[in-house]
Structure formats: C-alpha cells, structure tokens
Amino acid sequence: MVPLKRRKVVPSPTGSTGTDCSSGDNVKFPQFILFLLERKMGASRRRFLSQLGTKKGFQVEEKFSESVTHVISESNSAAEVRTWLDSQAGAHTPSVHLLDISWFTESMRAGRPVQILHGHKLQEQQTCEAEVLLFSVPSYACQRRTTLQNQNAVLTDALSLLAENAELSDEEGRGVAFRRAAAVLKSLPEPVTSMTQLRGLPGLGDHSLRVIKDVLENGASSEVESTKRSERYKALKVLTGIFGVGSKTADRWIRDGIHDLRQLGDSAHTLNRAQQAGLEHYDDLNQPVTKAEADAIGEIVEAAVVSVLPGARMTLIGGFRRGKQTGHDVDFLITHPEEGREVGLMPKVVSRLEAQGFLLYQKTTRNSYLESKDGPGRPSSNMDRFERCFSIFKLTEEERGGMKRADTERESDAHSHTSHQIHTRGRGLEAADEDEGVAEERSKPAGRKRWRAVRVDLVVSPISQFAFALLGWTGSKLFERELRRWAGHEKSMSLSSHALYDSKQSRYLRATSEEEIFSHLGLEFIPPSERNA
Ligand code: UTP
Ligand code: MN
After folding, report:
1. Topology (CATH level 3) of domain 463-530
2. pLDDT tens digits, residue range 189-248?
3. Residue 225 CB partners (closer than 8 Å, separation 6+)
4. CB-ligand 1 contact for 280 (6 Å cutoff)
C-alpha cells in the first residue's frame, strides 16, 4: 500500500517554483524520486516525458537506483516490471511503488503529484501472480525438486485419476500427459487459485487445463467424476488390484462380462500362479504397507541376505527411499562390494526365506542384462533385466512389532469379505506350489489372522551397476521417465537401470554414485526426497 503521506505535496526546501530547469535545486517534490521504464514506452517518449517531469519540478532519474521511490511504466504488468527490476544488478527494492503512466500524465497536467488512486497502481493481484509466474518451473521433472508436500493435491488427484484411467485403458501417451501435468503442479510452492497463474508453465496441455479449470471453478472435474462412476473404470480397478493381473488381462475379462471378484470366481477362467496368489491375498495386498512394516521386512530380508553371502549389502528403494510413509509394496536392492560375488545370490536368499516360512509366493527371474549383447539405447534394456524376485511376504504380528491390535482386526474382517469366499475356484492346478503356511491357514476355521501379506520386490545388481540400479529403482516412475527423456533428447545419451551410454562419444559413462550420474547428465543432483514427481 502506498502510504498516505506520499500524497502530500511537499514544498521544495528552496521554495522555488522552477518550471524550466533540470537542476536538483528545482526539485519541488523530494519525496518522489521517479524512474520511467523504457520497456514498451520507447526511448524517445521516455526522454520527452522525463524532461517534462523535470520541468514540472519532479526528480526524474535517468538510471535506476535504489533511491528511486516510484517506477512509472506504460502498458506493463506488475509482473513484467518486477521481472525487469529483478534483472537490475544489486537492486533490492521490494518497497518501490509501481505506477501506471496515467498517474504521471495526470500529475503533469496538475503540475503536482496527484493522489495515487487504486487505478494508478499496477495491480497487487498481478504481483502475486507474478510470484508464481516467476517461480521458474523447468520442463523436465528431473530438473525440479518435488517433495511430498504437494500444495495442489486436489488438482493432482484429479489429473492422476485420469492418468490412471488412461493407463488402465492402454493409452500410454495420454497417461503420460496427465502425469506430466500433475507433476508440474506438484512442484509449485503454493496452491493454484486461478488459471492466470498457470500461464507459461510447461507440461500443461489443453485437456489438463480443462480439468484444472473445472476443479478451480466448480470444485470438481466432471470428467473425473464420471470416470470414477463408470462401470469400466471400477471393474478395471478391482481386477488389476489382483497381483498378476495387468490392464490387458482385465480388459479381456471385462469383455467376457467379468466386473468383480465374485464374477471372476464364478467364471471358468483359469488363473496363473501369480494371479491365484493375488486373489488369495487380495485384501492384504490392497492395503497400504507402512514404513514400520517395510522396516520389519527389511530386517528379515537383510539377515537372510547376509547369512547366505557375508558382506552383501541391502538398500531400501522405491517410494520408501523417497520418504513416503506408505507404499503398495516394498522394494530392496542387493549387491556385494566385490563384483561377481552377487552371482547366484537370489536363489539362495529365496530358499532361505522360504525355509523360514516368510514367502507366500515368489517368482525369480534371472539376470538377462549383458552390456555387449543388449547394447545402448535398446528400450527393452531400460528395466527388468536384473536378477529379480517378485514375492508375497508373510509378515507375522510378532515381526511387525508394535502393530495395533485394532488394525489387525480390521484387516482380518476385510479379508473374510472377499478373497476367502472366492479362492476355492480357479486355483487347483498349481496349488501344490503354495506355501504350507497358507494351506495350514486356510484349513483353520475363520479366526483372527495373525499375519498379513505384503508385496516385496528384491533386485540384485553387480556393484558396477549399483548406482544406476539405485537411481532407476528409487523412482518416482515419472521422475525416471523424465531422466531418460532428458538423457535422450538433451544429451544424446541413453540411461537405463544398468548403464549410461553417451552416443556422441560412443562410450559408456561409469559411475559409482547417483551424484556422478546426475553430473554426467548435466543435471543438478536431486536427492531421493525431492524426486516425488
Ligand atoms: P514401484 O512400482 O514400487 O513404485 O516402483 P514406488 O515408487 O515404490 O511406489 P509404491 O510402491 O506404489 O508405493 C519403484 C521404482 O522401481 C522402478 C520404477 O521405475 C520405480 O521408480 N521399477 C519398477 C523398475 O525399474 N522396473 C519395474 O519393473 C518396476
Ligand atoms: Mn514400491
């Protein structure tokens, strides 16, 4: 706000009425040190107006300095003027008043500084807008710091739901577009309140903007609401909620008229071993895993790893490494400081955990990555080529430690609702594969379940690829995608969870830490907690 006193016409100390002189002696209004911005006004008009001002007894500065009290501009927004001010070296002028040319011309006519009215000031609102506009948002998520403190959850939830729906419908491009838009909003330091704040932000396509506008104006997006209500979306959610069921399988089932677990149980569809286990533990696996549970499992797995290969190291990866308090699964990366010692480790770890009764299901894939064979830039080499184990872990109450009894009761109730009543169908073929513990549990009369099932992923990497695996498996998925897009588009490099290849130099760039990989990529290091894009 402009202080009222600024309105006062202050007599010049000399008492001069000078109208024709540019000397400081003839300044009649010393509380007004004006600066006219040339931007959009043009140099000759600025010169003319400056001379006019001086003639009328105003102090008009040729150069901008910190002594300037009022900046006069023509056809500029407050944002534009602030941007210009910020570009002036060493200018710390948060209190300078930004006035429109109309105040200046009226003052010239009056021969004195006229009262500064609301319409004379470059609008305050535009100043707020400017702060968001000026908050620089680089286009790639891997150039931004995205913490878990999302200021725009209402908007990003809407966009994420549409992204999920697109992904479930095998429309990957549309899914990525919504994910990118959501990620940009997640990186903003303040909640978005008006569409004008979004001007100039990257990654916001027409469709995403329509959704955002709808939410800002109506409190909800009609497209999101109708998607949530649609039978197809509901069915896709329920069916892909089964571990081992992807969008293609779910789509096939829906076309066969299967929309829920009961219909699936009643159908003649045979399920593979993963899907049977998924159905068996449906409720547990659709309940978020807590950090405490992740840590409890970490201790068990690490003990098994170290017992079969002393000196081996294990790291919590995925969302928990980014600081999330819950997750859909728990991911661990295992390595050994001596290259090659990790070979054959996974089957031993799995046997050990199995013997201890911790695995309700497991499927191990061999390491199929070979630098010489896979070569750089093969998209298929981006993921999944490590020795890897997808498992369903049996976490008992004792191992979970201080779990509240009420939690367990609730899960137990939920469990008896769905999966128990349908697990009898569709299994059979491979029932022998299943763990004794499960069979035993099943034969018991429905009582309070003293354990829960948790999805656990184990990955083993040779130490030479460890930094790449760590970076690749920490996520978020969009952050990873953006890292690879950056590498390809901006650096002519190809990044995977195994290696970084520089196409210009035709060579692999080695790294022993995440920091080194960011540096190879010409990116500022972003710590895991700020990769929540
Ligand atoms: P997750 O799917 O486990 O996601 O993948 P998350 O971030 O931990 O979140 P939750 O579990 O849903 O809470 C973890 C990371 O592993 C990589 C993904 O890119 C992601 O960054 N990943 C996952 C792979 O590289 N390959 C895969 O097959 C799966
Ligand atoms: Mn995870």
Report:
1. Beta Polymerase; domain 3 (3.30.210)
2. 999 999 988 988 999 999 999 999 999 999 999 999 999 999 999 999 999 999 999 999
3. none
4. no
Q: Is residue 331 flagged as an active site residue?
A: yes
260, 295, 457, 502: the catalytic one is 457
24-126 maps to CATH 3.40.50.10190? yes
Angle, to 10 degrees, between the axis of helix 172-186 and the axis of helix 206-218?
50
List the binding residues for Mg(2+).
Answer: 329, 331, 457
Q: Which ligand is closest in space to the CA of residue 484?
A: 1
Ligand 1, atom 21: closest residue by C-alpha: 475
Q: What is the CATH number of domain 289-370+379-460?
A: 3.30.460.10
Q: Give tens-digit pLDDT for 67-118.
A: 999 999 998 888 888 888 888 766 677 788 999 999 999 999 999 999 999 8
Which distant-in-sequence residues (6+ apart) come within 8 Å of 153 by Cβ? none
Among residues 100, 284, 329, 435, the one annotated as catalytic is 329
Looking at ligand 1, which residue's alpha carbon is closest to its atom 14?
318
Clarify whether 329 is annotated catalytic: yes
Beta carbon of 383 within 6 Å of any ligand 1 atom: yes
List the chain domain ranges. Answer: 24-126, 141-228, 230-269, 289-370+379-460, 463-530
Tokens of 334: 């295992």
Ligand lying closest to the C-alpha of residue 477: 1
**DSSP H helical ranges for 68-205:** 78-86, 101-110, 124-134, 153-168, 172-186
Q: Report the first-to-last Cα separation within the chain, whole angstroms.
A: 38
Arithmetic mean of pLDDT over the chain = 86
374 as an active site residue: the answer is no
Of 195 and 10, more confident: 195
Kindly give the distance from the C-alpha atom of residue 459 to the centroid of ligand 1, in angstroms, as a whole number.
Answer: 11
What's residue 480's pLDDT?
A: 98
- Window from 370-379, 438-447, 470-479 with minimum mean pLDDT: 438-447
